Amino acid sequence: MTPDIEVRNLHLRYRDSVAIHDLTFTLDGGKIYGLLGRNGAGKTSLLSVLAGFRLASGGAVRVGGEDPFDNPRVAPQTCFVRETLDFVESVRVRDTLAFARRFRPYWDAGYAAKLVERFELPVGRRVTALSRGMRSALGVTLGLASRAPLTIFDEAYLGMDAPSRYAFYEELLADYLAYPRTVILSTHLIEEVAALFEEVVIIDRGRLVVHAEADDLRSRGAAVTGPAEAVDRFTAGLTVLGEQWLGTTKSATVTGPLDEPWRREARAAGLELGPVALQDLFVHLTKDREGPR
Amino acid sequence: MFDDRSPIYQQIADKIKEDILQGVLKPDQQVMSTNQYAAFYRINPATVAKGFQQLVQEGLLYKKRGVGMFVSPDGWEKLRGLRRERFFAEVFDPMVAEAVAIGIPLGDILKRIEKLKGGNRR
User: Fold this and answer.
1) How far is CA B57 from the centre of its chain?
2) Which of B12, B33, B42 to probe the A interface (max A CBs under 10 A)?
3) Where are chain B's structural domains?
4) Among A254, A288, A257, which residue's Cα sits nearest to residue A274?
5) Torsion angle (degrees, nearest 10) of CA A80, A35, A216, A267
6) Tell me: the pLDDT tens digits for B7-47?
């Protein structure tokens, strides 16, 4: 019931640009994934292919073993809450919910009603008259209450204030615990939501930067600070994401397998090892837009 | 509660260790389930499970099939033993080094310890 996702050598070209170059990864079913990337990294393009909204230009995508594009067996299993949202503007909120009830096989009307109350959605109002935050809350409500085995939220929180966003995260986790499914969340607000991710996929300019367990990623980075010579000695062979100097003191942000012996020796050599937050790691991994990687 | 700067499963394990050491969690007391813990702290349940697993491996928690996780009867003693081993190297020696560096006479430290001892007796 929770489909695996397989992406093999995926390419996606638009008329005059390439959105995705040769992307390959596999997502096991039943986990919560964070899809991170800067604007224009190809997140929405990738998700559109996974959700069967777009046809790949090359390579293959399988959701639960099937090609999702225009596939009547996969489509009911998938709910894609797009940043743009796909509402009929002229109808009322309650009709939008009734529509979902008809077409979403796993729809839970009771849960939807609870979410409507929690997000204080005005059911009698027309969609076109909703504020941006309310539109997003409606999108989130549809995404959660659909209980689709593959549920994708693409920057679904736009315009929602902090309390509403936290209500969303709380509901998502609680409902996932009760009804496990495959969830993909694309976001910029990494710090707010990172504890929810089991695994993280970072893409940049249409290419995979990293796919790892979120906790694994958290342990991979370190800010090494101390005398420049010692910093260089201990960071040789590691991926240096950024460097700063203050007089003879140097600080290097590195990633790599940083094991305990390495940490102990570095500390013994008088180096200070600081943690690198997931958000900072993300910024470092995706900041160098021009240079080679 | 938990931050994003080190593995969260590690932070969970550390917090439960602290609770055992402080007696908040008593020997043979049941700990929250993975799902309760995940929902309460808004953490992915797989991450919570990993933290619990580590504590089982360290012999601080044990599993009763179909019931849940419990604090090992000797969990508190184990942790206290570990902390005692580390106390001088990690707490006391750095404190003395700091005192020397900023010119606090060691006699003052001894006096302070005597005073605290007196205070605790009352």
Assistant:
1) 16
2) B42
3) 8-73, 76-121
4) A254
5) -150
6) 899 999 999 999 999 999 999 999 999 999 999 999 999 99
Q: Are residues A157 and A263 in the same domain?
A: no
A194 vs chain B: nearest CA distance in angstroms? Answer: 7
Min Cα distance A249 → chain B (Å) is 21
The CATH number of B8-73 is which of 3.90.850.10, 3.40.50.300, 3.30.70.100, 1.10.10.10?
A: 1.10.10.10
Q: Give me the helices (H) in chain A, please.
A: 43-50, 93-103, 109-118, 132-146, 162-178, 190-193, 214-220, 228-235, 260-268, 278-287
Q: A223 with A98, same domain?
A: no
**Cα A234 to the center of its chain, rounded Å:** 33
Which positions in chain B touch A31 (Cβ < 8 Å)?
A: 46
Let me know whether A192 and A278 are in one domain: no
Identity of the amino acid at A175: D
Q: Are residues A255 and A207 in the same domain?
A: no
Q: Is any Cβ of chain A less than 8 angstroms from the Cβ of B57? A: no
First to last CA, chain A: 38
Two structure tokens written together for A34: 């964070």
- Which of A36, A215, A258, A283 to mutate against chain B (most B CBs within 10 Å)? A215
The predicted-structure confidence for A2-35, as pLDDT tens digits, reads as follows: 889 999 999 999 998 999 999 999 999 999 999 9
Mapping DSSP to helix (H, G, I), strand (E, B) and coil, where does residue A281 land?
helix
Alpha helices in A160-206 (DSSP H): 162-178, 190-193
Rounded to an integer, what distance in angstroms lies between the CA atom of residue B27 and that of residue B13? 16
Longest dimension (CA), chain A: 68
